[in-house]
Amino acid sequence: MARRSVITLDEAWERLLSSIAPLEAEQIPVDESGGRYLREALVARRTQPYADLSAMDGFAASGEGPWAVIGEARAGHAFDRALSPGQAVAISTGAALPQGADRIVVKEDASLAQAVLRADPLPTPGRHIRRRGFDFKTGDTLLAAGTRMAAPHIALARTAGVGTIGVTRRPRVAILECGDELRADPVDCPPDGLPASNGAMTACMVGSVGAEVSSRVLVPDRLEAVVNALDDAKDADLVLTSGGASVGEHDLIKPALERAGFTLDFWRVAIRPGKPLIVARRGSQLMLGLPGNPVSTFVTAFLFALPALRRMAGSERALPQPINLPLAGVLPAAGTRREFLRARLSPEGATLIDERDSSALAALARADVLIDRPIGAPVQAEGALVSCYLLENGAIA
């Protein structure tokens, strides 16, 4: 296939991800692992719970009542003797049951007079007891390699007796914004200039998958300047550019890539927005040339940069995961490219945002989801299910 051919999104994903291997592994404290991807499975080093525990405040009892109350068990302070039938101890939630206890009298059902306990109704044997190892046991595999660590995973790892874990190194990303019109200061910007926004936007996006921005620069529309900026980014795992990826007189990314030693893989994908997307490589370094219009930058970063970084970081599920949502209005027929339409969510479903221009940032900021429209899809009526990608842009928070 000629490199100038337009390829489908699925083919582009396959070509991109099949060439990316996870970066090196490193050991870090589990408390610092939020957002990182496990390099190896997480295996429990202890059993949880370590013993049969009470799930309620009340009394641990042996046999049928009434019971003589002979002591107390608290979390971290077990009662150190066995119970005989007809005996009980006061117990708090999370405390270990004494040997011989077979039921819990919850506090609300208990009456205690002169150290004699009665219950109404009578407790069911085994109820309100957390059995030893019901959550996990020593040697159980708790999380698979490639899992992205989040708050519940950190709590799980600590409870499993794990203090340090192997994760993949954070990918380093160099971001280049190309264009003479761009200004770094959004406050001090002349009328004929444009506050640079794509770099800040993509920096936020790559940070959301655990990558770190190693550099972020504005590059003027001069071939030598673009080449120098690419050379300065040699230590990055991924180079992201925005602007200059098309075929206009001042679109310099492609010739600059050749001068800087990159090999072009593909540069046009049958999607809207974002057709002029460049994918190139320099040794093990990946380069993605994103379109300059901000909506196109966002969509192509969402569809390509974030999956590439997830794969570098060791994720087993690099691609965004779609969900089916009902339409809250009519969706027009699709064209000859796979479209990603901005939409808002309501109790009725996804509502298409009318503004479709690829420079319209206000419409992007209002969007909760991208509707994925296949090539040639017919008109779809209100209530029809459509494939959507949730956006983490705060719009539905």
Give an overview in words.
The chain folds into four domains: 9-23 and 170-312, 3-Layer(aba) Sandwich (Molybdenum Cofactor Biosythetic Enzyme, Chain A), CATH 3.40.980; 26-47 and 136-168, Molybdopterin biosynthesis moea protein, domain 2 (Alpha-Beta Complex), CATH 3.90.105; 53-130, Molybdopterin biosynthesis moeA protein, domain 3; 323-390, Beta-clip, CATH 2.40.340.10. The chain is built from seven helices and 26 strands. The protein has helices at 9-17, 151-159, 198-207, 223-232, 253-259, 294-312, 361-366, and strands spanning 25-29, 42-43, 53-54, 58-61, 67-73, 87-91, 103-106, 110-113, 116-119, 129-130, 141-143, 164-168, 172-178, 182-183, 194-195, 212-219, 238-242, 263-266, 271-272, 278-282, 285-290, 323-326, 338-346, 349-352, 369-373, 385-390. Strand 8 (110-113) and strand 9 form a beta hairpin.
Q: Key terms for this structure?
A:
397 residues, alpha+beta, Molybdenum Cofactor Biosythetic Enzyme, Chain A, Molybdopterin biosynthesis moea protein, domain 2, Molybdopterin biosynthesis moeA protein, domain 3, six-stranded mixed β-sheet, 26 strands, 18% helix, 29% strand, Molybdopterin molybdenumtransferase, MoeA_linker/N_sf
